[in-house]
Amino acid sequence: MNNSKKENSNSTEQNLSVLINSTEDPIWLVDTNCAILECNSAFHKWVSHFIGCELSKGDNVLFDGKNKAYHDKFAMCYQLALNGKEFRAVEDMLIDGKIHYTTVNFKPIFDSNNKVTAVSCFARDITEHRQHLYHIEHQNAALREIAFIESHKIRGPVATILGLEQVYNYDNPSDPFNKEVINYIREVSLDLDKIIREVVKLTDEIGM
Q1: Is 114 a residue whose pLDDT tops 90?
Q2: What is the DSSP string of the chain?
Q3: Within its chain, how far is the Cα of 207 from the centroid?
Q4: pLDDT tens by residue, 159-176
Q5: pTM exceeds 0.85 for this model
């Protein structure tokens, strides 16, 4: 190889290194024997959360089976990709005492004869996204409960108050029965107040 070709090769490798290390998302490429052909610095850090140390170019991506939990988690994924299946998996890992969720994409690389020669992998932290979805689900559950309260619990007391108002003797305010009506309205109003407080508490919980 002449100097010009060497320079071009070195330049290409440098550009590739700059490209894959310009993201915080782990990127790596393995051959059919699960040896790492290429990887970025984010991958070193990411994989260390599983096995306690970094893996680099030339290492076995399955850590030679030394960590059973890690091996069992990913061995089938690589095997499926090496069999030509492209897919995405969601994995969890413990970082600083907190659970983080990551999508891991496995994409087989084919040669001109349609034979798998490598597997391209890409991971992305989706913890914030999942937390956002959980928050939305929590909000939806609270909204459904509020809707139930409004359509069932509130309707009863309101109907009772309206019914009591109909039997109030406006022609004779001093009618002794009016006092009973007012007492009933007061009791129902207290029940209604409790229900409204329940709705306010739910709306506070979901930040409405």
Answers
A1: yes
A2: --HHHHHHHHHHHHHHHHHHTSSSS-EEEEETT-BEEEE-HHHHHHHHHHHSS---TTSBTTGGG-SHHHHHHHHHHHHHHHTT--EEEEEEEEETTEEEEEEEEEEEEE-TTS-EEEEEEEEEE-HHHHHHHHHHHHHHHHHHHHHHIIIIITHHHHHHHHHHHHHS-SS-TT-HHHHHHHHHHHHHHHHHHHHHHHHHHHHHHTT-
A3: 20
A4: 888 888 888 888 888 888
A5: no
Length of the chain: 208
pLDDT at residue number 133: 63
User: What is the C-alpha to C-alpha distance for residues 38 and 30, in angstroms, rounded to an integer?
Assistant: 7
Q: Name the token pair of 178.
A: 């009016």
| Per-residue model confidence as pLDDT tens digits over 10-24 | 565 665 566 566 788
Using CB atoms within 10 A of its CB, is residue 31 exposed (0-12), middle (13-18) or buried (19+)?
Answer: middle
Count Cα neighbours of 143 within 13 Å in the Cβ-side half-sphere: 9
pLDDT at 191: 84
